[in-house]
């Protein structure tokens, strides 16, 4: 029986891989919804990135901001900056990591035909997409502040439903012989993220509802709530990110992930503990008193699991002896470097903002690692190698510059470089989807890729006819 990055490829059922490989009638609803989440993430990333470039590079002069802001340029600048953060976290990175890759690959990796509630799955995407549109409308000063609150409430509804659907799917829809301990780390990360969404999103929705009922300065209250939510947000971004990187490391090292069960336990601690880290960032000034013991404890809840997971990656790389340095591995390495940088920043006084910036950038790198890792499985085509390398180089340099400085010419250069990288990625995406070459093999990464999705054709849903080496004919 073939071995895999987790204990077995089939969870103890020798017939499971063959059954999956022959699933001509496998439902494609979860893949379509996953593609919709990824498409929304691309649009939100472009919009949010361009907003950041416009602000950082001074493309929105003082008089333009004053005109848009009804005579309040500072308030308009703050409003655009807030929307940029919402675009990147609420509508780009988190939907891509959980809604996009989660919907696409959790059923494939667990032997499920579809998600547990297909109609709910589609309804949740509609809620998140509607929230995105309402957030854009909320940029205008002519729009009531309650529109922003309504957008966030609608986002909460969509993400809560998505989390419930993911938990139900993994617990009830996986192949009968696949035990929980046999699931890949990626699936564990997805279901733990879903559990965390179920825990924290109702709290966020309750706080937003109270804002509506209390009245007063709505935008100020929303900013405070979002500031509090930035604590759980870190864990919500890190969990699926580390699941993707673990999958990539296993594939390109060619050996199973070392310390697998400690990694699962660490992710569980992050999921449960991260749901309680609500007030950590408020101690920077929004609360009058600070409990040093509590803030240190909350920091350890996030940092300790990250250290355990990264140690497992290092142990896996050390056990491999030889690593295949392909493009997904480069993005995974960038994510790991940013996690180390974020941990170092967290030890510095007043470095909370830098920590969150490093976390978001790490999640972006993990998202691109997943994209370049699975794009052949999703589309049937691999990306143009040179364009992918250029995209990585621009993003890596732009990220480093953006984290090192926040103002001045160097900061402008970093923002412009990030903007160019977004355009390059858009070109990569279009070129990949429009390529007229033949479809890639079912397992185009070779013997290192041994989880269940690599037994299915590329793209998933087409007829599979392979030779002994796994090449599709």
Automatic annotation (TrEMBL):
Cite the record's Basic and acidic residues compositional bias ranges.
1-10
Q: Which GO terms describe its molecular function?
A: cytochrome-c oxidase activity; heme binding
Q: Name one GO biological process term.
A: respiratory electron transport chain
For this UniProt entry, which segments traverse the membrane?
A: 36-59, 86-110, 122-143, 149-173, 185-208, 228-249, 261-279, 299-320, 327-345, 357-375, 387-404, 410-431
**Which superkingdom, per the lineage?**
Bacteria
Q: Which GO terms describe its cellular component?
A: membrane
Q: Which UniProt keywords apply?
A: Electron transport, Membrane, Respiratory chain, Transmembrane, Transmembrane helix, Transport
Identify the stretch(es) annotated as Disordered: 1-22
User: Which residue range or ranges hold the Cytochrome oxidase subunit I profile domain?
Assistant: 30-404
Q: Does the keyword tRNA-binding belong to this entry?
A: no
Name of the protein in its database record: Cytochrome oxidase
| Protein source organism | Novacetimonas cocois
